Amino acid sequence: MYVLCVHHTNTETRRKYTVKLFNGNLKIIQQFIKDRIQSEVTRVSHQRKMKKYYDGEHDIQNKEANGNSPSNKLTFNFPELIVDFNHAYLFSNSVTYSPNVKNDAKTDLFLEKMKEVFDANNEEKVTNSLGKTSSIFGEAVEVHYIDSEGRHRFQESNPLEWVFFEINGEEMALRYYETVKFEVKNNSYEEVAVNKYTVYTMEAIYQYEEIDDKLSLLNEIPHFFGEVPVVRYMNKSTFGSEGVSDLKNVISLVDAYNKTTSALLDTIENNSDPYLLLINLGVRKEEVDEMRKRRILQFKSQEGMNSEAKYLTYEGDLSYIEDFLNRLVRKIALLSFTPDVISKDTGKLNGDSGEALKMKVATSSDIKANGKVMIFREGLRKRIRLIARQLQNASNLNFYNEGTHNKIDSTFNKNLPTNTKEIIEMMKDAVGILSHETMLKQIPFVEDVEEEMERIQKEQGEPIQFEEEPGDE
């Protein structure tokens, strides 16, 4: 994040400076914007590469053909597997929100109002998408605004179009993108390239348009959110390195796997259609065509010379290549914190029990997921904060000023593999030890425990009982 410090002693002075900066000399504003964009070129280039690899556009596709030799370009999309597996583990089940205080009417009311905003914006889908985007790019962006009917809206935005920076300790955001507009000239029209820039400050939104290197201020819109209404969801961060993609550490290994398998297929194809080497054998083209047709090789050796005819094939041991590829797969799984659930011997899914598979997934995925949750939750807190402030603006309820939004917790419900048969067997053994409610909570396909208990009682006329099936000892 770019930081610009200009010393001002109070908030009002800083605010006036910000307004003057973005509603002042357009040449200065234009240069400032271009400098911010230029400062992010390396990051954007890296993020584009991560997205290309996720989409299966790997460097192996640029492999150049070598004459008439085979030139296979095999692409194994490990990046998609890594992102989708870890995303499913953390985001398949919706994030849930609950009060961290009991019997607080105002907190309960805020939670109810917040969920209404969530429902109006399809929050589950947006949050799920933000999770995957941040996994690929290292960050995801969500924009909040008030629509023409006064409703609070939020939606995801392309992280490649954003730059975040600070001026005088105040967070700001810049969105930039290219578009075209059509201008009518002489009974025809032409496309005109346009650069769009939008600067978000704590008080206002400044919209600019640049055509032929000339910048114009289109709108200055106050927003009343009290802070920049743009939420940045980070994937994982270390000091000095913001927003790290889940794919960063495995790209070179994926390239090695693609190159090795492609070269191996080249060798196999060469062996299946090898060159015929003729040594000291004079053969005319017509004779070669005839032999090919009859599938018989018949040569006359030159007198007094050693002659030979043989196919050029690779006769080395290829087993070491398979061992190398297996090691690459395991290193890719290790460095991406993705559980290795493929059997080394069979190449198929391991036949682990539900609990064993759960432990394998939890051990590797949790190392990454726990860190992701902590930093992703910061974005969720800002989302809730923006909603609280806007609900306060629209009513006489001081959700923000009284800190009601701080009384809401978010919970990530990890999607662990389960063996339902094993769980039910354990529940049978737990009859008389655990309550029926507790046991039903352990069964993954029971969504509403109270409703399920009422259903069973209605059907049987008595509380649920786990009975042995006929024939069980």
Automatic annotation (TrEMBL):
InterPro entries recorded: Portal_protein_SPP1_Gp6-like (IPR021145), Portal_SPP1-type (IPR006428)
Region (Disordered): 454-473
Superkingdom per UniProt: Bacteria
Protein's recorded name: Phage portal protein
Organism this protein belongs to: Rossellomorea vietnamensis
